[in-house]
Amino acid sequence: MEGEIGKPIALEAYEQLADSYSAQVEEKPHNAYYDRPAVLSLLPDLKGKRLLEAGCGPGIYLKEMTALGAEMPVGVDVSPRMLSHAKRRVGERARLYEVDLNRGLSLFEDESFDIVVSPLVLDYVYDWRMIFSEFNRVMAEGGTLIFSVEHPSSDYRLRSGESYFSVGRTELVWKGFDKLVLVPSYRRPLQEMLNPLIQAGFFLEKVLEPLPTEEFRESNRKEFDHLSTSPGFICFKARK
Fold first, then answer.
1. Residue 65 contacts residue 73 (beta carbons within 8 Å)
2. How many angstroms separate the CA atoms of 93 and 195, rounded?
3. 105-140 burial, b if ≥16 CB within 10 A, otherwise e?
4. What's the pLDDT at 175?
5. Which of 8, 45, 59, 193 sits a CA distance of 20 to 30 A from 39?
6. Statement: residue 172 has pLDDT above 70
7. At residue 96, does pLDDT exceed 70?
8. Predicted confidence band at 92 (pLDDT cuts at 50, 70, 90)?
9. Which residues pair with 168 in a beta bridge?
10. What is the pLDDT of residue 157?
């Protein structure tokens, strides 16, 4: 299956989206007023901690986390164009590397980090057993893993006709940017999110199904009302 080997599943889509995505991400409601507040709320104290963002995109989380005290965090992403935007956004305050998470994190030694953050990225990784094992390997004992993905309930409703219980490729047209882009990803049931995490040696500390903020209401009332009663994303916090 594409994504296990060969070209990363969403690389072409994100290369097309990168410029428009980066321009909008600081105030785009689903990012700025929904996922980002939820993910940031799960962070421990960042001062003095070695931090990796696995899938840093245009660098908005790196910018936020350096403001919260992270010193020289590391960001990796598969998209060169996204990394160019991250470089412009964070400058010399972070180290950036082009990495395909589907191939692991061999660039980094064991126990290199205290915190790993991966917001809205793992939907593009096929083998979660592999990537959670890699997160565990590069993380120091007692380290924290925080990640968000599309909610399995939302994902299933958006793609009717597919089995909820399967792990497989799916596609969705993204609107709201400078062009329509077909974005492929992998969908999976809740058990295929949690079991690989536990099997990799993590202890689940918290599950957060976020609600949109009041700023979201002001930006898009219709979508605010929808997300206030129906889940879109889901966040997890785990400890090694």
1. yes
2. 35
3. beebeeebbbbbbbbbbbbbbbbbebbbbbbbbbbe
4. 86
5. 8
6. yes
7. yes
8. very high
9. 187
10. 62
